[in-house]
Amino acid sequence: LFFNTLGITQANLPRQAMGVAECNIEVPLDLAACHAEEDLTVQMFKRQPLNQHHPTATDRESLRAAVDTHAAQCAKRVHAPGVAEEQIRDRFMSTDIHREPMSLKDYVESVIPALMNDSTAVSCSRQIGHMTGSLPHYMPPLAELVTAMQQNVVKTETAKVATFVEKQVVACLHRLIFKRDAVFYDALLRDTETLPGMVTSGGTIANITGLWIARNGALGPDPAGGFVGVEQAGLLAAALHYGFRGAVVVGSALMHYSLKKAADLLGIGVQGLVPIPYDEHFRVNVDELERKVIECKSKNVCVLAIVGIAGATETGSVDDLQALAAVARQHSVHFHVDAAWGGPCLFSKALAPTLVGIESADTVTIDGHKQLFMPMGCGMLMLRDPNKVCLVAKTASYIIRRGSHDLGRFTLEGSRPANAIYMHANLACLGGVGYERLMDRSVRICRYMAAVLHRTQEFEVVVLKPMMNILLYRYLPMQVRGKIRCAEPNYDGLSDAEWEDIDQANIALQEQQKADGKSFVSRTTVYSPRCRRSIVALRVVIGNPLTKEADIDEVISEQLHIASGQPSELTPSNSSGQLSRHLLHNAQNHKRVGSTLGAHVVKRRARLPRESASFCNSLPAPDAA
Q1: Cβ count within 10 A of residue 521
Q2: Sheet holding 363-367, edge to edge
Q3: How far apart are the C-alpha atoms of 493 and 532, rounded to whole Å?
Q4: Contacts of 38 (CB under 8 A, 6+ apart)
Q5: What are phi and psi of 537, to 5 degrees?
Q6: pTM of the model as a whole
Q7: How far apart are CA 550 and CA 579, in angstroms?
Q8: How do residues 6-31 score in pLDDT, each as one tens digit?
Q9: Strand runs labelled E in 255-378
């Protein structure tokens, strides 16, 4: 309109006025017609009134109905039986982008079922194989609010309130770990140049950030020597300046794979991650770790960090954090604790002693989307000394300026959603006592399962005394039970073929249970100090608040029926959920559970409830020694 007023058209504008490059979008003369066409798309971004007679109301209700349908399906099964991954892949092979848009109504009716129907029901109470489970009932509508707000906490200009919500939430969890007083946090929350920690998209980014801080601290500026530090000069220049032949991170052989990514990204290479053996309780050998630290230093290899584990992903074990902290102090090494899984144990008076020493860590990873029950994906990194956040601080001229409250100054990630709102809600609505109940419950159920398995001849518990709520066990074929399920297991008496038979039996059992879809456990291959070799083990994670002892009974019952070659009689639709009661009924009617099990197993299982309760009480966490 401005150009038209001056009698200038698009065609006779000089090239300089159009900019350096030609633009194929002309300024239209009929804006009304242009707006009418654009509004077909623009209206998709307009908030629709809460009016049941509005044209889009039905579509919105259909989406919400899909959420309810998915929740109902989750109660029935974990996977749709008989649906292979290749079948699902083939549904999503087209790479053509449709020129004309599809109506939301058509999308809801035709596409949503394809996305939803065969998805993994991670909140099913019998999905006990991975670290993903149910969320509080208020999370889906709260997620709708968070999405509608569309805050970006990289800067206060796009997250004026969410910025301070995040700082408060992080400070609350910092206080849970490090237990500083109220005066400390009052000053901390007002300070623009320090942070108690960072919110990330998951434990991987949190672990990377923790080691990033460790590296920059170990190879920092040397003003007297004229060196600006690794942050500015890079790892090679830092090694040359300080005379190091290399740099390493030392920790248990059970360290999470994200630490391999961190080692790669930080320039020390995956071989710079030094794994230390663990004991029969799957806790790192502290003496051997210290010897490795001393050896590295004697060879002019910089030890950037010592890593302790609080809830190993595969075994649930917790390293002796107090002893590791002492080693780190003795040798002036950064101490990082990966508590992505086990951190919430600090809410429990009964379980918190398992993590003693975590308060001495320099940095701590804790995952929100695991046992803090936040939606995917949210992790956090806590810093014992909030001033160390400056080791990785970055600024820009248009945002994240010095002196601002912009959180993006200190985080590896830039744009981020306001995920801290979910934790803010949980801290209020679940509270500390709610988290304590959930943690105590999950550990109790895990130990119940260990007790049930321990009383059988068909299974062997790999982690003898579960420290948390992760359990490893394996099925034993008939021909090896006499050598293993006895007072003094004779692992040396097994042939290579028998070891292979055990591994293959567990692989087949896990695959079949997954294919059937009614329940799910995962599996892993882990080195067993007792067996003195790597073994295939079934892995259970009790992280879903909806899981109860009856679900454990059903999972084990199904495995027994799979192993016996008979169809499972215990299903969600016909089971009372009590394995021992079911087997007692069979014993009273002189029925066999399977050709490989025998009636003596049925009679023995009938005694499980009373015995397992006492066995659970006899499973304390191993001493630090």
Answers
A1: 24
A2: 197-200, 379-383, 363-367, 334-338, 301-309, 246-252, 273-276
A3: 13
A4: none
A5: -130, 150
A6: 0.85
A7: 7
A8: 454 555 555 554 455 566 667 767 78
A9: 273-276, 301-309, 334-338, 363-367
